[in-house]
Design goal:
With 365 residues, the protein is an alpha/beta fold. The chain contains eleven helices and 15 strands. α7 (201-208) packs parallel to α9 (240-254). The structure holds S-adenosyl-L-homocysteine.
Length: 365
């Protein structure tokens, strides 16, 4: 049976029109499903009984069952493992809540979502990348990750920084994004949504043309193409110059600053000289560099730089006039940090993952 949230709003409206229903029914249904998190058409009490029955005979609104939940940072970080059903696959999502005094920004609740089971991009330092690609998620499966958390409290931000490459699952990602920002849907500010990409140039161009004010983060990780190809073997023919051009196009089309993510790997890409070269390349672009000190994953043989090295790299960028911040660490001890999400924890929660052995955090399933 089809999940109702795999439909776009236009498709839902068209279905309703075919069934002789007025246009405002789409709004009513969206509000029940996305704002109230209703999972049973019978609960939609302002719909005619016959319509509720027809909807229930064609569509489902089932949530993804929770396989396990792990909590860290005094409850400020929660990782959830959701069952995708049918094919025995599962997917991880993370919620982070931020106090206003943490970074000066008003109260924020951010959900980090996955767009694929596994990933085909094979980044050498990423746990998901090392696991290979299994399948794309459907729009309803992406939305379900946010809905899981909105049932508890309001979500203000969504970052597409979980498992998978969002722009390699473009249609489903955009369909989910449209429901997230729809005033009848999750009603999240467009600026509260950020898509992080390994750097798929076509996808960045398409995104620029969507007419949305959503944030874009491009994962760069190196100041030169040779090193970038070693870290991201699938970067293939895409050069840093092409990515910078695509970023420029995004800034011009959307008037939004672009972020470049840079995972810092000790003695691989964290030398001050590399920071200077990076700064040179980004000059003249409304860019922001977000430094992510490497989060250890099993078997990668890479090291996280000391805080001094991280600060030194940041200072070099800033001295060259490039805005640079260091990402706040969250959920490292529950393997919920950047690059640590992967589903093969199923059955043996985290026991083969160096990062998850750091603290005695329990799975509550
Ligand atoms: N496919 C998207 C989303 C990936 S996860 C992309 O490539 O952008 C979001 C960010 O975490 C990316 O910048 C990714 O490169 C980074 N990342 C992956 N593994 C990491 C690790 N082990 N430590 C720090 N950052 C990591």
């Amino acid at each position: 049976m089809r999940h109702l949230l795999d439909l776009s709003k236009d498709e839902l409206s068209a279905w309703l029109a075919e069934h002789g229903e007025p246009g405002y029914r789409a709004q009513q249904i969206a509000r029940w499903a996305l704002q109230r998190g209703v999972t049973d058409f019978e609960a939609m009490t302002d719909l005619p009984a016959a319509l509720r029955a027809t909807l229930a005979s064609e569509f489902t609104l089932a949530p993804l069952p929770v396989l396990a939940t792990r909590i860290a940072d005094d409850g400020d970080t929660t990782k959830v493992l959701l069952d995708l059903g049918g094919d025995g696959q599962a997917v991880e999502a993370v919620r982070m809540t931020y106090d206003p005094d943490e970074d000066g920004v008003p109260d924020r609740t951010t959900v980090c979502v996955s767009t694929q089971v596994g990933c085909a991009m094979a980044c050498t330092f990423c746990a998901t990348g090392q696991q290979g690609f299994t399948r794309n998620l459907r729009p309803s499966e992406i939305l379900a990750q946010v809905l899981h958390f909105t049932r508890e409290r309001r979500v203000t931000n969504v970052v597409f920084m979980g498992m998978g490459e969002p722009l390699a699952n473009y249609a489903a990602t955009m369909r989910a994004v449209r429901w997230m920002v729809d005033p009848d849907g999750l009603d999240i500010r467009q600026r509260g949504i950020t898509i992080s990409t390994v750097g798929i140039v076509n996808g960045i161009r398409r995104l620029a043309a969507e007419g949305l004010q959503i944030g874009l983060s491009i994962s760069l990780h190196a100041p030169d193409d040779d090193l970038r190809r070693r870290l991201i073997p699938t970067a293939g023919g895409t050069t840093i110059d092409e990515l910078i051009e695509a970023a420029r196009g995004y800034v011009e089309a959307r008037g939004r600053r672009v972020t470049f993510a840079y995972a810092l790997l000790e003695h691989v890409n964290d030398e001050p000289e590399q920071a200077r070269r990076l700064a040179q390349r980004l000059r003249g672009l409304q860019a922001h560099v977000n430094l992510i000190p490497y989060n250890p994953t099993a078997g990668a043989g890479l090291r996280r730089p000391s805080q001094e090295r991280v600060r030194a790299f940041q200072r070099e960028l800033q001295a060259a006039g490039i805005n640079a911040t260091v990402r706040i660490e969250r959920g490292q001890e529950i393997a919920a940090a950047c690059g640590q999400l992967r589903t093969d924890v199923l059955g043996t929660p985290g026991d083969d993952d160096a990062a998850s052995q750091a603290a005695p955090i329990e799975w509550r399933g």
